Amino acid sequence: MTPFELLEPASLAEAIALLDPEDSSVRPIAGGTALMLMMKAGVFRPRRLVSLRKLASLNSGIAIGKNGALSIGAMTPLAAVERSAEVARAAPVIPRMMRRLSNIRVRNVATIGGNLAHGDPHMDLPPVLIALSAEVGVVGPDGTAERRVAIEDLVTGYFETVLAKNELVSELRIPPQGGSRAVYIKVTTGSAEDWPALGIAVALEAEGAMVKSARVVISAATERATRLKGVERLLAGTSIDEKMLARAGDAAADEAECISDVRGSAAYKRELTRVHVGRALRQALNS
Amino acid sequence: MATSITQGGQAAPGAKVGGQVGRSLPRLEARAKVTGRAEYTHTMRLAGMLHAKIFRSTVAHGRIKSIDVSAAAKVPGVYRVVTADDVRKVIPSPYYGPAFHDQPILAIDKVHYVGEPVAAVVAADPHVAEEAVQLIVANYEELPAVFDEIEAAHNKTLVHEELKPAGTFADLKHLKGRKGTNVALDFKLRRGDVDKAFAEAAHVFEHTFHTQKVLHLPLEPFASIADWNESGVTIYSATQGPSFVRTEIARLLGWPENRVRIKVPYLGGGFGAKLYIKMEALATALSMIVRRSVKVALTMEEQFYTITRHPSTFRIKTGVDATGRITARKCEVYWNGGAYADVGPRVAQKSGFTASGPYDIDNVWVDSYALYTNLPPAGALRGFGIPQLVWGYESHTDMIARALKLDPIEFRRKNLLREGRPQATGQIVREVQLEAVLDRVAERLNWGKPLPAGTGALRRGRGVAVAIKAVIAPTTSVANLTIAGDGSTTLYCGTIDMGQGSDTAMAQIVGEVLDIPAETVRIVPRDTDVTPYDMGTLGSRSLYHMGHAVRLAAEEARAKIKAMAREVGEPEGSNIPLPDLFKKKFGMQAGNIVGTGTYKPDYVPPDPATGLTDNVTPFWMCAASGAEVEVDTETGHVRIARLVTAVDCGRPVNPKIVETQISGAVLMHLGFTMFETMHIDAGQVTNASLADYKIPAMLDVPQVMENEAVDSHLASGPFGAKGVGETATFCVSPAIANAIEDACGVRLTSLPLTPEAVFRALRVQANAPLEDEE
Amino acid sequence: MTRTISFSLNGEQVSAEIKPHHNLVEVLQREFNLMGARESCGQGMCGCCTVLVNGEAVSGCLYLAAFVDGAEVKTVESLAEARTQALSPVQEAFIEAGAFQCGYCTPGFLLMTTQLLDRYPEPDEDQIRHYLSGNLCRCGAYPEIVDAVKLAARKRKNPRPA
Lengths: 287, 774, 162
Description:
The complex is a heterotrimer.
Chain A: E1 5-7, H1 12-18, E2 26-29, H2 33-40, E3 48-51, E4 62-64, E5 70-73, H3 78-83, H4 85-90, H5 93-98, H6 104-109, H7 112-118, H8 125-131, E6 135-139, E7 146-150, H9 151-154, E8 155-157, E9 160-161, E10 168-174, E11 181-187, E12 198-207, E13 210-219, E14 226-227, H10 229-235, H11 242-255, H12 266-286
Parallel strand pairs in A: 1-3, 2-3
Antiparallel strand pairs in A: 4-5, 5-10, 6-7, 6-10, 8-9, 11-12, 12-13, 13-14
Helix pairs in contact in A: 10-11, 11-12
Chain B: H1 30-34, E1 50-56, E2 62-68, H2 70-74, E3 78-83, H3 84-90, E4 95-96, E5 103-104, E6 110-111, E7 117-123, H4 126-133, E8 137-142, H5 149-153, E9 183-191, H6 194-200, E10 203-211, E11 223-229, E12 232-237, H7 242-253, E13 260-264, H8 280-290, E14 294-297, H9 300-303, E15 308-309, E16 312-320, E17 326-336, H10 344-352, E18 363-371, E19 378-379, H11 386-403, H12 408-415, H13 434-444, E20 458-470, E21 477-483, E22 489-493, H14 502-514, E23 522-523, E24 526-527, H15 542-567, H16 578-586, E25 593-599, E26 620-632, E27 638-648, H17 655-674, E28 680-681, E29 684-685, E30 704-709, H18 732-744, H19 755-765
Helix pairs in contact in B: 11-18, 14-15, 15-16
Chain C: E1 3-9, E2 12-18, H1 24-32, E3 50-53, E4 56-59, E5 72-74, H2 89-96, H3 106-119, H4 125-131, H5 142-157
Parallel strand pairs in C: 1-5
Antiparallel strand pairs in C: 1-2, 3-4, 3-5
Helix pairs in contact in C: 2-5
């Protein structure tokens, strides 16, 4: 790694002031696990890093609101989320997914906010949060005014987000899930602890086999985590049987924009999508 | 099993300590390893040492038009930027390699693969060196490149203009100065008349198999530190062959060997990667240029550009008679050696001896070609080519059995080489437990009972494979042993303990001969100023060759103890404690007894025309594996429900260490079988990191894994032992592929057996091939 | 851009001059001669560089040294009893189960196992495999490592009488 300036501001305003909207070599650093990878590979050579570690306002921890909404401070490590009783109660899919997210050392250090702001298409967290209709609070140079961004709108492309270079994720919010049941399937094609070749997240609100609403999200196989809205429309208001699962799988395969990489060809990932959308829905229905 | 230890480390003839060979003694260095104190080259530092970082080629084949180092040289803290021109001022002919002197320390005039070292930056701070490397600019005139081994064999695109064999090996001499070829070795074996036998055979089968490019990936990446001055050079290196490094560095410098000293701390894995000469020559050249000690320590990524396993294409054809006997087998093997030969020609030749498998076949034809291509070099990886060959011949053998509706185990049994029969080379096979390993695997798989075929999309199946290997010959090991005035024993041997437990095993052999507890034997750290010659820690040869040398050294010491006892007037059979004996002889705690042992087995080189010889190897190793798998036919995912392996390693000197060697070898090859592969695009490795090149982890270990060493005792081995490091690698790949066919009817002929490969084969089988998208 | 960091290292208060781009492993090696945490993959994938920071395992190669200012840092060198150098039950178990070969990855496995047993004193096979799934051993000693974890759990439950 090459030398850079490391600043550790104690207030949010100070931190945002130290960021530079025009300079991509100035970036905030939270846990740093993902950023360090880019720096070590030489693909990111920062001039200045602004550490968010000392910002109390991003360290609000994990809280459940009266309505059952979950709020998680941006600087909360993934491991704290994984171990949280509140999270397990409000969104049990999250700790289940966390178990195979990277490894424990990374989860101990990487933060919720950093994970989301990084815009990496292979992450396991974003598709699950999109399925749960989660959003982030974003703070920028105008101080206290916070804007809200749905996770599904956060990432715009390969390592690209809607965040300006001087904006920070402050908090993750997950709305109450009611009777919705969520499932995440991580499909690997290398070793078991590989990055996913495909991630499928599903949140299903159903009575018996009758679907009230469904959110179906694909990730890893695509440029960014994306809702499969055609599949969602197909499922809404229908009764799920094996035939419908197959139709949903076919619809997902048609809709998904898969890309080829070392983890598999686009054609193969499309077939994986076809199978695993059906499996995820079945699991959600039976859970 | 454990021996009580009460002797305090003193050889006391007569006071029986009990058998040391056969003990499951924990590794002697265990404490150093669990406290984090064990020393590895990659983390070593010398006072005042500088760090070097390497600038590498970005083209696969090209003429170097210019290298601009000016910006790099200006980076504050940079000590020196070095190119081949600087190297040639200190080492006029800077080409190295075990079989061919073809590899330049830094690229000269041309680059031959993406990732080849072109320049190096030396600085006190490694970060500074790294930063400066990024500022070097090289311009190349790109030349046509060849990546595929079959294309390379057509010699249309040439990697090197002229071949430069090292002269070390007699069978390479005829290649000296040869032009217009990529063939670095063509080994031939001709036994009987295959054409006639094919014509007369009831059935003839022909298939082609491929293996992919994978790498050793030791967790300690390559590292060497050289400290040169006019009187000599000391090199600290993560090497499996300090004696070879010494010879080669001495040759490069034009010095006698005694001015070159190689010291080797613990190795963080080797698997064949750290054989022969790797970073040592560059470190030495840099140290000569900057006149300081210089460390070259690679990153994980750089390992992908240093040494790999050979990809291969294996065309195999077999004739079978009406009774199910194999009458003829023709093998054509093409080894993709990459841009520099390394030990590839040896891989091509030595594995060629057994390319036709562990079967008794009257008519055998083998052509084995080592080929240059514009890829990162390939060398030996845990098996010296045998796993690639077994992949082909045991998949092929299974396909024949299925086609003939014969039980795959019965078909193999019927054709196995038996004791006293000639192997393809002509050497009579003795003391190899082929039937036993196959039988044990069959038993553990309950082969006699049908396996439930599975339900729904999940289909179950099982498969086996069996293989043989000739140990590399001829090679030499030397060991010295000293007993001090207090009776304590020190062993000097050049075998590198890279995790295989050789130090412990050698101590057990010393203990067995001198009747002392193995844990009291001190093994001196590897240092060519102190430890005598050893050919190298490779090819499962050490326990046999060095084991014998150590045994001989200990026996000589034992004889000298007896002689000393006689000399000082002790009665025959006296069990006088050693300290007393030394005191009697020297008047005080003084003096030494020194034993030495040299071992080199006989060998008759194969006839160049026929490849035949009646003594190609001092012993045979063999193994069998069996797998039970469950295939998800909707996705192609394969779950390995059971993986069993039985090996013949002679008598286990340390059963616990043997067990871990077997399971470790199986798991390493599980990676090569199921998912490991270097993705290469126009010569560029696109997944050169552990993020994108995955190796097996805890969750990849099969649910049930059973390993065993079958009862065996090699009469010519040290206390009955053979070697064990490689054997369990042989059969994993074909056993799993055979199980996959049993489960769902598809046959894969290329490694790795990824879910996508299985899925695509299933779609072909269903007459609906998966079509690729734009 | 040199700065001074102060932290507790294996129970001792220490400080070091570092630069922002230095990672924790290189500082432990260069400034404190602690070689047990070692960089291998450089990407947090292999676990050879495992270090405990404030009681949590981290990949030292991906951790800026600047961030341990004021923290409590522990390395494999802290596992043995400081005065007597008696091995911890986990270290003993790894030796007895033969749970390593070359030893390069071993410090990481030892620290992770210690963490695992602190959190789950009697882990089942599934917990062991998941907890240690982010540590790589190219020698493939995984089966023996699982044995060692189970043995260590027993040793910690029933410590030998002093």
